[in-house]
Here is the input.
Amino acid sequence: MPKKFFIETFGCQMNHHDSEKVAGTLTQMGYVATEDASEADLLLLNTCNIREKANQKVFSRLGALQKTYGTKPGAKVGLLGCMAQMEGPKIFERAPNVDLVVGSSSYSFIPQLIQKLEQGASHVIDVSQDSDRLFETYAQSRESPYKAFVTIMEGCNRFCAFCVVPYTRGPERSRPGDHVLAEIQRLASEGYPEVMLLGQTVNSWRDPASGIPSFAELLKRVAAVPGIRRVRFTSPHPSDFHPEVVEVMETTPKVCNQVHLPVQSGSSEVLKRMKRDYTREEYLRRIEFIQSSPSDIALSTDVIVGFPGESQEQFEETLSLLDQVRYDQIFSFKYSARPGTEAFEFGDTIPEEEKSRRLAVLQEFQRKIQIQRNAALVGKEFEIFVESKSQKGLNELMGRTTQNKIVNFAGSPELLGKFAQVRITHSFPNSLAGELI
Here is the structure.
């Protein structure tokens, strides 16, 4: 009987895509996936290290799994990803029930590491930066049968004061353009109509083979692959976001008119301490050329509140930025001091209660903006890519507009993976409801 594996993923799209690669590798090794942790021979948690809360979630989950994984004799537990990369052998001290630690750049070594476990080794670890094999072809077990992640670059050179990514993912390394296009051609032939290009600073991609001159040109060539209907990308860095990407959206409708452009703070002083490489005014100039486009591009962002030294006035500058831009969606967080980063040395100067208050104020402020923006869509018609059954009801489906708006509507499961015209009938802060036309 084949051995079974269970993977639980925390964090960003890149982590989810990494889990797909690991799952594909394990399947090639003869393992079979299971959704029941209690019957797994190998339990893997793919971790995030961007905030302390993410770490706490992982250790809490390990405690919960301890009650189940032991019911299967010989079951092994592994931690993968960014937390594994940063913490390394210290994980074994804090969680002695962990058998395997694999960093975010060492997935190509998983077959050898698993083999060591199977041969009886304990506390197997690899947290090396495996740059030479980073973009080799992996067998992948995709989470969705309809949309696919495609890594085009790894790492980051920015060293923002609060961020661990340069330490967990290493420096920027771009994948050759012909490799990217070859993978997307395979995905199209397998019936995937939507792809999302991934990178920590995705628009900083530069073709190491010099075959494709720019990120904007890569978007065009991906959109030109027969069978591809939608192209998305995340997350671009504001400093490398240029008008030519907007021009591609205007001239190439397959490139979705939605941009996630992390701002982190609306205060130039805070941005300077964060080492974000742009001022409020420079960021807003990018917003201006995005919003002036006739393509009606939807905008989302990331915001951190309570960065060391952030005054009430500087926090209010962030609120005023939200009011000026009027994002379609934001992802907001309390500052979390991460060991090894520059900001860790600043000291966590904002009390936790004050961070929580600011976060609540920010989220309510944005909630009102989203209510207004989504209400303006009622009565309009959109092409929806139908992704899954909705959690709203037994006979409902869930899909997205090209602007990445979630739409729930009644429809037949036969529409899954297809495109449908839907009229919006109701709006909510985070989603829309509609009816098939």
Notes: The mean pLDDT is 92. Residues 352-375 form the longest helix (24 residues). The chain is about 35% helix and 20% strand. The chain has four domains: 4-130, 144-256, 267-376, 381-436.
